[in-house]
Design goal:
Chain lengths: 317, 518
């Protein structure tokens, strides 16, 4: 059993590594397909050809593609993603300062949407009737609300009218945990609204199916406490699609947090992408692509492992 | 044992909720406007774009970024609170007899962050970068520019002479903006270093807590003799691109000052913040083709006048630019040449537009294409409807590339752009009469004469007379088809900051002008 699991994890790790490598190659080639050279971008349109050539030479731009890629890969493995063509700063350092912002947003919104979504979904499935319809209508409304609009409303209510939360800005955790939580509150709620609705629907459908199962009926007949039937047995049976939904939410929110970052002026990866694409800062773009891929691949890996753990049939296979 | 009744539990829940919200409000309350105290420790400005998207080379940006770079760099001349030009790194200046050479006498006690000192050689090294077309600040003084500098010569360690291609009286005004900002020796030698590290002698230096693209933190520069003229020990430029978010940041206390768009002004005022406004930028349709080369109809003045009558400017502003001002004048309302007469003379009148088209030989209208960008598309669609109502078909085509957008001056009869008339003579000579908006080389004697009169005007009365003539003719001739004047708005926390003042007609207040509320 342990050997099978170890083999499974090894295979998945290798697959994940291969995926990251393929994306890194693609990002590298796309950057090279862009017009202009790093020298021209960093020195500006009016720079002399000699100066551009000198910078290109220094950056190894004239080396064969293979050499360039493996040099970049070697540095990337050691955490060095190169330097920005625009300001000469370390791409790794810049992304390292931005990653916690986006990760906090995505993780916070995922957790909140999961808690709300599961609560709503389970309640709708178990209670049924009018409450199910009400929750269905409410969830339908949440799905239809654009995140940007939701954010504006929340800011108006909780920042402008009542000053409960800050309207903009991000405070790092190490500066003040309390201010960090306050600065994240509104953007996290903004992002969580749509996700909660999605997970609620997923949960309701899965729970309805779970509640029809033979073993649940048996448990009911044996006077097992209702909470145990619902939250231990039925929810576990229903959990596979819910967990998948939550993981997809995280991936989506990680990429989609750009809306919240813009609305709340937060220095995350979304803002970095916007800035580096608009200034043709190739190493920065390449760095964001690779980091985002690593996150997505890692989440998928965790999802697969969680699925394996949750489903006895899969675990045995 | 029952500790509470249902009602009691409900009341306790409400009380707990209220206390929770109260305590949270107290946590954030330090930043709320109501609780803010007037102090000089810090000033946060919410701005609409990344001031240093291309790093900290002040010459890679234009006047719109002057306020931010004013903190880091000193200029050869300075913009004064009344809009005039005063001494800066150059404590004195003089022209030769025919105004072709400007000699600057430099201060001798200026130190840059790299430790280097100001001297004439450093100024020359800075200005000799003017051939680099990437340096926006130098676009006008480079070879072929309207105010071309042909050479920069070191006269003595503290004197430098600028020689022009043609007489340039009043050129010193250019040196009060980013054009006159001087970079220290290390920065100007290794310009790539300016991407990450500023090298100026300004009243502030960049603090390491800066987060690129998000917030730029400036702290007082002890080596600057002028630092005492700046009230705040720390200035934070907070980049908040969304207009509503900027207003929210101001109202809720995250920012002390914010650049507001006109449609968020009422909201901000309703929440008790102060707002100072200034006009100056007229969004104008510009007739590129006055000779009829790309669209024969545009060769006739009556056709261009018909377009003036056909556009419902008030409706355009009400629908798309609430808070801004509909414009029938080419020059802004605060300029000397502004006249109310044009508002009635060219008031919305589609019947008159149709009649003029018929007189010009186009009773059934005509068709042409205009190139739009992302910012102008909606306005152009509104104008398109008005023109269609009088029989003119204006096809709005989105520019597929920057090249296509620039080429439009030669390939299409009409364009649309915001024009800042801070320097009307410069705009006329640099862009309208001889510049890029007149590729077909059209002439108008009245416009040329009025521009010449304005350039030569010696007193306010003469300036007013000439500017009014110029403004009136620009509209009558249809060279300019103004749509609306955009206001620049600075919102400020009245409890913390004194009313914001603009320096003359400059749309960006001096950094030194922000002071604590008294």
């Amino acid at each position: 059993m342990e050997v099978t699991m170890a083999l499974f994890i090894t295979k998945r790790l290798l697959m994940a590594l291969a995926t990251v490598l393929v994306v890194a190659v693609l990002a590298f080639l796309l950057v090279h397909a862009m017009p202009g050279s790093p020298g021209a971008v960093s020195l500006g349109a009016g720079a002399s050809q000699d100066a551009i050539d000198e910078v290109n030479q220094r950056l190894g731009w004239n080396d064969p593609l293979f050499t360039q890629f493996f040099t970049w890969l070697g540095s990337a493995v050691h955490g060095d993603l190169g330097v920005s063509l625009i300001d000469g700063r370390s791409v790794s350092a810049d992304l390292a300062s931005r990653l916690p912002v986006t990760a906090s947003l995505a993780a916070g919104a995922t957790i909140l949407s999961a808690v709300l979504g599961i609560a709503l979904g389970v309640t709708a499935a178990v209670r049924g009737g009018v409450l199910d319809q009400l929750i269905g209508g409410f969830v339908g409304l949440l799905v239809a609300l654009p995140a940007f609009w939701v954010g504006i409303i929340f800011v108006y209510l909780f920042a402008v009218q009542s000053s409960v939360f800050p309207a903009t800005g991000y405070v790092p955790f190490e500066v003040s945990p309390q201010d960090w939580a306050l600065s994240l509150a509104l953007p996290v709620i903004t992002l969580a609204v749509g996700g909660a609705a999605f997970i609620a629907r997923q949960t309701r459908a899965s729970m309805l199916e779970a509640l029809q199962q033979e073993h649940i009926r048996t448990l009911r007949a044996t006077a097992t406490p209702t909470w145990k039937i619902l939250y231990v047995h039925a929810l576990r049976y229903a959990s596979l699609p819910i967990v998948a939904g939550i993981a997809l939410q995280f991936i989506g929110l990680f990429g989609g947090s750009v809306i919240a970052e813009q609305l709340f002026a937060m220095p995350g990866l979304g803002q970095a992408v916007q800035s580096s694409v608009s200034t043709h800062d190739a190493p920065a773009v390449q760095g964001v692509v690779v980091i985002a891929t690593v996150v997505v691949v890692a989440v998928n890996l965790v999802l697969e492992l969680a699925t394996k753990f949750l489903d006895p049939k899969l675990r045995a296979s | 044992m029952k500790l509470m009744t249902t009602t009691g539990r409900g009341s306790a829940a409400v009380l707990t909720g209220a206390l929770l919200i109260g305590s949270l409000a107290a946590c954030g309350g330090g930043s709320s406007q109501a609780a803010a105290k007037a102090d000089t420790s810090s000033l946060t400005l919410a701005i609409d774009s990344d001031s240093a998207s291309f790093g900290y080379d002040p010459l890679r940006v234009s006047a719109a970024q002057r306020q931010f770079f004013e903190g880091l760099y000193d200029s050869l001349m300075t913009l004064q609170p009344d809009g005039s030009t005063g001494p800066g790194l150059a404590k004195e200046f003089s022209y030769n007899a025919d105004n072709t050479v400007l000699t600057l006498t430099l201060k001798d006690d200026v130190t840059f962050t790299d430790g280097s000192k100001l001297d004439a050689a450093l100024v020359k090294t800075n200005l000799d970068r003017r051939s680099d077309p990437a340096l926006s600040a130098y676009s006008a003084v480079a070879k072929g520019g309207a105010q071309e500098i042909t050479s920069v010569d070191v006269v003595s360690p503290t004197q430098v002479a600028l020689t022009f291609a043609k007489p340039q009286p009043g050129f010193e005004k250019n040196l009060a903006s980013t054009t006159g900002m001087i970079v220290g020796k290390n920065g100007v030698t290794d310009t790539a270093s300016l991407g990450a590290t500023p090298d100026g002698s300004g009243p502030y230096t960049l603090d390491p807590s800066t987060v690129k693209g998000n917030k730029y933190v400036l702290v007082k520069n002890d080596k600057s003799a002028d630092a005492s003229e700046y009230a705040y020990k720390k200035v934070v430029f907070s980049v908040v691109m969304d207009p509503q978010a900027r207003a929210n940041a101001l109202v809720s206390g995250q920012a002390d000052v914010a650049m507001l768009t006109s449609n968020t002004v009422d909201f901000a005022k309703s929440k008790g913040v102060g707002v100072t406004q200034i006009g100056g930028t007229v969004n104008t349709m510009i007739s590129f083709d006055k000779t009829g080369k790309t669209a024969p109809a545009f060769g006739q003045e009556k056709v261009r006048q018909a377009i003036q009558y056909a556009i419902n400017r008030q409706a355009l502003v009400d629908a798309l630019h609430k808070g801004d001002i509909p414009a029938w004048n080419a020059l802004p309302k605060d300029s000397a040449g502004f006249t109310k007469d044009l508002e009635t003379k060219f008031a919305y009148n589609p019947d008159k537009a149709k009649a003029l088209l018929a007189e010009a030989g186009y009773p059934n209208g005509f068709e042409f294409t205009i190139i739009a960008g992302a910012q102008t598309q909606t306005d152009l669609q509104a104008v398109q409807k008005d023109l269609a109502a009088v029989g003119i078909t204006m096809n709005v085509k989105m520019a597929a590339s920057t090249d296509e957008a620039f080429a439009a001056v030669a390939t299409t009869p009409l364009g649309y752009a915001p024009l800042n008339w801070d320097n009307p003579v410069g705009v006329m000579y640099g862009a309208i009469l001889n510049g890029f908006t007149n590729v077909q080389k059209a002439t108008d004697d009245q416009l040329s004469a009025a521009t010449g009169e304005l350039a030569a005007a010696k007193d306010d009365a003469a300036v007013k007379a000439a500017a009014t003539k110029l403004n009136t003719r620009l509209v009558e001739s249809g060279w300019m088809i103004p749509l609306y004047e955009a206001l620049t708005n600075q919102g400020y926390n009245t409890k913390k900051v004194s009313p914001v003042k603009f320096a003359g007609t400059n749309a960006y207040p001096l950094l030194s002008s922000y002071t604590p509320a008294s």
